[in-house]
Amino acid sequence: MPALEALIERKLQQLSVPLAVRLPSGRQLGPPDARVTIAFKDMGALAPLASARLGRLGDEIVRGRARIEGSMRDLMRIVAALVPGGGQPIQPKPWQRLLYHVNSLLRHSRDRDARQIRAHYDVSDEFYALWLDPRRVYSCAYFAEPQMTLAQAQEAKLDLICRKLDLRPGERFVDIGAGWGGLLLHAARHYGVDATGITLSQNQFDHVSRIIAEEGLGERVRIRLCDYRDLVPDRPFDKLASVGMFEHVGRARMGTYCDTLRRLLRPGGLALNHGIAASGLDDAMVGGGLGDFIEKYIFPGGELIHVSQAIRSLSQAGLEMVDTENLRPHYARTLWAWSDALEAQLPEAERVLARSMPPERAAEVLQAYRLYLAGCALAFEQGWVALYQILLIHPDPALATPDLPGAQSTYPFRRDHIYR
């Protein structure tokens, strides 16, 4: 395919970051001193590189038709140079937005949500333990001090959430999408709350249940295997957190999600929604098919909306936003920490995955996660996506702080309790 080879050579010459390509014949294109080489086993796999369809190029790497030689950090510098339009969000056409809405409705039934969550979180607990911190906190850390380790930053994040919610001993606290129990257990151990967590992942449910039993916390900590829509407590909770759950809800179900948060929270109570948001308005997304790759291999059913749309939906449900914080660069650093940890033990990671799936599938999953972690780190660095903590109240006109009659909640409308 001489024409394709010539096109690839021109593409490589235009890149600001050196990249080499090795053809199936063994011939190498691009600079000889490039820090990254993509070795192709099949000429057909070259087409996505030529057309900057980066999601499709990821497909070829996952399927083993192309191989990365070099570090993921160097590869992501090249990806940044290849992304169409410099990563500016592309506005969908009206018919595309309608299609997104229909697909969102279809993809987020209770059964499909459960399958989609388990497809990601039940891959292998051992695998996640290789590159997450010891608590297995699988969300953006908070590097309150520059020198913090990942484990320290995750503890700082858990504590930041508890302080924002102003948790008090004896309060009834619920964690929507509790993961491996990091926040649920931290709130119970250090703030004395009566804590309930829910998850759709069997692996996570089993892990948290085991810790609760081992530590004798059963009287005031519990984990339930259920959909957020099906949680019906005997009375509303005082405080609520939803961390990393928002992204799985779906655009078409956002109203139901926000209504559920309000239903679960007593009047005057506080809720914190911690979630990833798109940088583009009106469903605009970064080009190159990066989002399609993440949905196909990592987060089936995952959908992002802009923070303004999130606040609008929460407001329509009757919740008032009292504080919003963007932790975007903290998530970039978190993801790089996860990526570096995985890259440092690739052979062990593949062995761990092969214990729960066929070897060929294990190799594909590992390549997908390598691209996902490093690619998401790049996306947060570049501002293609962001991470927001939105603090909300369920207004109660009868409540007031000592000097602010209109508070309508226990929130003091000052930040000193958060950052003291």
From TrEMBL:
GO molecular function: methyltransferase activity
Pfam families: CMAS
Active-site feature positions: C376
Coiled-coil ranges per UniProt: none
Keywords for the protein's UniProt record, in alphabetical order: Lipid metabolism, Methyltransferase, S-adenosyl-L-methionine, Transferase
InterPro entries the UniProt entry points to: CFA/CMAS, CMAS, SAM-dependent_MTases_sf
A Gene Ontology biological process term: methylation
Superkingdom of the source species: Bacteria
Family: Belongs to the CFA/CMAS family.
Entries under PANTHER family matching the protein: CYCLOPROPANE-FATTY-ACYL-PHOSPHOLIPID SYNTHASE
Full protein name: Cyclopropane-fatty-acyl-phospholipid synthase
Species the sequence originates in: Paracoccus pantotrophus (Thiosphaera pantotropha)
Upper taxonomic lineage: Bacteria, Pseudomonadati, Pseudomonadota, Alphaproteobacteria, Rhodobacterales
